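Aim 2 progress update. The chain analyzed this quarter is reproduced below.
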Amino acid sequence: MACRISELVIDTAAPDRLAAFWSEVLGYVELGREADGSIEIGPPGVGFGGPQPTLVLSPSSAPRAGKLPLHIDVNATDRDQEAELERLLALGARPADVGQTGAESWFVLADPDGNEFCLLRSRLQRVPPPAH
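Predicted structure tokens:
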């Protein structure tokens, strides 16, 4: 028996803004909204429980203290790393300095809330949509 990551929950002061950003980054769509203002996004045509985890952007007014203990790594699926970096920066990501030397094969970025994530070099295959 084993577990699988089904959701990643990110606390944010602006769920709509972060949901829009990560939907564009990942090619996700809005799957639903909760009464508390949480927004769940995930792969189109799949939703919760598919091969990729969904993201839940949960409203929070609590200030974040320091670096998050977890961050997201992303890989391009249809372009090289440099082209994907340009796309992510155009979407609102910004370079982040976490002490890297400049010799790394990845780029450290921050989303509109300042959450660090990395753009890795390898290109991955796109997860195909479910067959109907």
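Strands lie at 7-12, 29-33, 39-42, 54-59, 72-74, 94-95, 107-110, 116-119. The chain has a mean pLDDT of 90. These observations will guide the mutagenesis experiments scheduled for the next reporting period.
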